[in-house]
Amino acid sequence: MPYRLTVIGTGYLGITHAASMADLGFEVLGLDVDPDKIARLNAGELPIHEPGLEPVLRRGLASGRLRFTTSYEEVAAFGDVHFVCVGTPQKRGEYAADVTYIDNAIEGLAPLLDRECLVVGKSTVPVGTAERLADKLARLSPAGAEAELAWNPEFLREGFAVHDTLHPDRIVLGVRTERAEKMLREVYEPLGEVPIVVTDYATAELVKTAANAFLATKISFINAMAEVCEAAHADVELLSKALSYDDRIGGRYLNAGLGFGGGCLPKDIRAFMARAGELGADQALTFLREVDAINMRRRARMVDLARELAGGSFHGCTVGVLGAAFKPNSDDIRDSPALAVAVAIGHQGGKVTIYDPIALDNARKAHPELNYGESAVEAVRGAHVVLLLTEWQEFVDLDPEQLGGVVAARRIVDGRNALDAENWRSAGWHYRALGRP
Ligand code: UGA
C-alpha cells in the first residue's frame, strides 16, 4: 500500500504539493485552519492565481484521492507522512522569521499521533528549527520515537509551481534515520530520476536559505552593475547578455531592473542574517545587507527617474503604472517592487493609476488610496509618464502607437528592461530604462 499523505497549510506551497501528489496517485488530505479556504478548495476553487494548478486540483478532487479538512484529528488518523507547508513570514519590525505557524502545526498534530509516521517540514525556516521541533514532537506525541521528523525544503517558484513540484532540480532530505530516508524516497519515487541529497537537519534547512540568498545576490549583482552603467553611460542589458555566454556565470537571474520582491527572497535573506547573528556568524552574511540595500535602491532610483521625466515634481502629474504583482504570472503583491514604487509616487503627490492583468484586486485591497484602471489603455489615459513595473507579456506586446494615442505625453520608464527600446523610440516615445543610456 502506498503511503497516505497529509499536507498542513494551504498556501502556494501546500496546495501545489497536495494536488501534485494526488496527481501522482497518492491519497492526500490537506489541512488549513481557515474554514473558508477549505470550503473553496473542496469546491475546486483556488484561493490564489497559479497557472496550471486548478486542473490538477480538480482532477485530484474528482478522483477521490484529494480532499481538504480543518480537523487535525482526521489528519492524524489518515496520514503516514505529514508534510508541514505553513508560512514563515518576516516578523513585524524585525529581520527574523516568525515561526509561530510551524510551532502551531506541530502542537496541533503531535498529541494526536499514536502510530508510526513521518512529519516532514517543507517550510523555509531558520537553521536549528528542525532540531527544536524534533524535540517537541518527541515530547508531545504518544507514539514517541515512532513519530519522527524529517526536513525536506521546497524550491518551487510561483508561476511555475506545478512544473517545479513534478520536475524538481533536486530533492534534499534532512533525516536522522534510514527509515525516514526510505519513506521519503518511496514518496518521491514516482518523480523518476531526480538527484537526491541526503543530509542532517541543519544542512537541509541551510540549503534552502543559501539557494535563495544566492539568487538574491545574483539579481543584486546585476543591479549593482546597472548602477555603474548609469554612471558610465553603458548598457547593462548588453553587459548581462555578454556575461551570460560564460556558462560559469549563466544568464538566469541576471535580468537587471526593479529588483526582487515577493514572499520569499526579501524576507529569507533578512531572516538568514538574523539567524547568523544569533549563531555568532553575522560577519559571514554582512554582504546580504548590501544585497538588500542594492535591491531597495532600485525602487528609489525608479521613483527618481519617473520624477525626472515628470519635470522635477509629481505635483499635478498623472502617472500610469503597468504592473502591481511582484513578478508576471502571479497575483502576489507581497513586497512587490511595482507597488512600492506606485505608493511612493502617490506619497510624493503624483496621481497614480495602476493596471495589472491579475493582481489588481489584491492591490486595490492593500492600497485603496491609489487609482486603478481595467486595462493598460485605461491606466495610462492622460498620463504624463508611463511606468512599466512588472513584465507581463501583455505589456511587452503593447503597441506604442496605440498607447501613444491616449497619453498626455509619450514618456515611458521601462523598469524591467522588457520593451523593445527602438520600437518605442521610433513611435516618438521618450524611452528610459534602468541601467541603460
Ligand atoms: C523564489 C525562488 O526562485 C524559489 O526557488 C523558491 O522556492 C521561492 O522563492 C521560495 O522560497 O518559496 P519566487 O519568490 O516565486 O521564487 O520568485 P522568483 O521567480 O525567484 O523571482 C523573485 C523576484 O526576483 C521577482 O520579483 C523577480 O521579478 C525578480 N527577478 C528575478 C529579477 O529582478 N531579475 C531576475 O533576473 C530574476
Automatic annotation (TrEMBL):
<feature type="domain" description="UDP-glucose/GDP-mannose dehydrogenase C-terminal">
    <location>
        <begin position="320"/>
        <end position="421"/>
    </location>
</feature>
<dbReference type="GO" id="GO:0003979">
    <property type="term" value="F:UDP-glucose 6-dehydrogenase activity"/>
</dbReference>
<feature type="binding site">
    <location>
        <position position="124"/>
    </location>
    <ligand>
        <name>NAD(+)</name>
    </ligand>
</feature>
<keyword id="KW-0560">Oxidoreductase</keyword>
<dbReference type="InterPro" id="IPR036291">
    <property type="entry name" value="NAD(P)-bd_dom_sf"/>
</dbReference>
<feature type="binding site">
    <location>
        <position position="32"/>
    </location>
    <ligand>
        <name>NAD(+)</name>
    </ligand>
</feature>
<feature type="binding site">
    <location>
        <position position="261"/>
    </location>
    <ligand>
        <name>substrate</name>
    </ligand>
</feature>
<feature type="binding site">
    <location>
        <position position="37"/>
    </location>
    <ligand>
        <name>NAD(+)</name>
    </ligand>
</feature>
<feature type="binding site">
    <location>
        <position position="158"/>
    </location>
    <ligand>
        <name>NAD(+)</name>
    </ligand>
</feature>
<feature type="binding site">
    <location>
        <position position="267"/>
    </location>
    <ligand>
        <name>NAD(+)</name>
    </ligand>
</feature>
<dbReference type="InterPro" id="IPR014027">
    <property type="entry name" value="UDP-Glc/GDP-Man_DH_C"/>
</dbReference>
<dbReference type="Pfam" id="PF03721">
    <property type="entry name" value="UDPG_MGDP_dh_N"/>
</dbReference>
<dbReference type="InterPro" id="IPR017476">
    <property type="entry name" value="UDP-Glc/GDP-Man"/>
</dbReference>
<dbReference type="InterPro" id="IPR001732">
    <property type="entry name" value="UDP-Glc/GDP-Man_DH_N"/>
</dbReference>
<dbReference type="Pfam" id="PF03720">
    <property type="entry name" value="UDPG_MGDP_dh_C"/>
</dbReference>
<feature type="binding site">
    <location>
        <position position="88"/>
    </location>
    <ligand>
        <name>NAD(+)</name>
    </ligand>
</feature>
<keyword id="KW-0520">NAD</keyword>
<feature type="binding site">
    <location>
        <position position="334"/>
    </location>
    <ligand>
        <name>NAD(+)</name>
    </ligand>
</feature>
<comment type="pathway">
    <text>Nucleotide-sugar biosynthesis; UDP-alpha-D-glucuronate biosynthesis; UDP-alpha-D-glucuronate from UDP-alpha-D-glucose: step 1/1.</text>
</comment>
<comment type="function">
    <text>Catalyzes the conversion of UDP-glucose into UDP-glucuronate, one of the precursors of teichuronic acid.</text>
</comment>
<dbReference type="GO" id="GO:0000271">
    <property type="term" value="P:polysaccharide biosynthetic process"/>
</dbReference>
<dbReference type="InterPro" id="IPR014026">
    <property type="entry name" value="UDP-Glc/GDP-Man_DH_dimer"/>
</dbReference>
<feature type="binding site">
    <location>
        <position position="208"/>
    </location>
    <ligand>
        <name>substrate</name>
    </ligand>
</feature>
<dbReference type="InterPro" id="IPR008927">
    <property type="entry name" value="6-PGluconate_DH-like_C_sf"/>
</dbReference>
<dbReference type="InterPro" id="IPR036220">
    <property type="entry name" value="UDP-Glc/GDP-Man_DH_C_sf"/>
</dbReference>
<feature type="binding site">
    <location>
        <position position="327"/>
    </location>
    <ligand>
        <name>substrate</name>
    </ligand>
</feature>
<dbReference type="Pfam" id="PF00984">
    <property type="entry name" value="UDPG_MGDP_dh"/>
</dbReference>
<feature type="active site" description="Nucleophile">
    <location>
        <position position="264"/>
    </location>
</feature>
<protein>
    <recommendedName>
        <fullName>UDP-glucose 6-dehydrogenase</fullName>
        <ecNumber>1.1.1.22</ecNumber>
    </recommendedName>
</protein>
<dbReference type="GO" id="GO:0051287">
    <property type="term" value="F:NAD binding"/>
</dbReference>
<dbReference type="GO" id="GO:0006065">
    <property type="term" value="P:UDP-glucuronate biosynthetic process"/>
</dbReference>
<feature type="binding site">
    <location>
        <begin position="253"/>
        <end position="257"/>
    </location>
    <ligand>
        <name>substrate</name>
    </ligand>
</feature>
<dbReference type="InterPro" id="IPR028357">
    <property type="entry name" value="UDPglc_DH_bac"/>
</dbReference>
<feature type="binding site">
    <location>
        <begin position="155"/>
        <end position="158"/>
    </location>
    <ligand>
        <name>substrate</name>
    </ligand>
</feature>
<comment type="similarity">
    <text>Belongs to the UDP-glucose/GDP-mannose dehydrogenase family.</text>
</comment>
